[in-house]
Specification:
Blueprint lengths: L1 H85 L4 E7 L12 E8 L3 E2 L4 E3 L4 E11 L4 E8 L2 E9 L7 E11 L4 E9 L15 E9 L1
Antiparallel strand pairs: 1-2, 1-10, 3-4, 4-9, 5-8, 5-10, 6-7, 6-9
Amino acid sequence: MIRLEISVEAMKREIEETRNQVKTALGNLQTERGTWEEKLLTMKDASVTALYTAIQETKTQVQDELKVLAAEKERWNKELKESVKMQEVVLFSARRPEHNTLTKGQTMIFTEIILNKGDAYNKENGVFTAPYTGAYTFTVQFCVYPGKNVDFAFMANGTPFKITRIHRHSSGYFACRSFDAMTIVNKNENVKIKIVSCSSGTILSESNTHHWNTFSGRFIQAI
């Protein structure tokens, strides 16, 4: 009987120890589970954050590329418009000098517009302003009294590109002479006729019906 009681007590102790071990193991498993859940949540948050950051970076990159494309589109449209404009006619012709008595250094101002396609010639100051970069041709005609002389220059942006002279020695009637010049002019540069030297008194003769002093020009080709 005593031996049986001892065996039962030993079995109780083993069962209790086993139960304690099981409880400890379950506790450890619960702790590990909590740890893994925390890690998984952290990894999930990190993945979501990384994904969000990547999306934002991609969005920013796409927006930047769209801005570049928009700027390129605007530039192409501008160049296309300029190209179309360059195919338009630029042509002017003016007459009637502001003064028939000339002075050295004077800019010739032809006050009456005959034709001004493109509105590039200004009758207020005698200046033609190039709307496009390219080749232009210009013509001036002066009707000079006998015994008079005038030296003048075609000026492009303040620099002469052709200098010529009319010298009337004869005592007869006036004579009208025309002169041509061609040059390359950049966009927004100006062209005008400048008096280099001249005789005194009235030099130019002008008639409404018979003879005109004129200044004309036209755009030939873009360069």
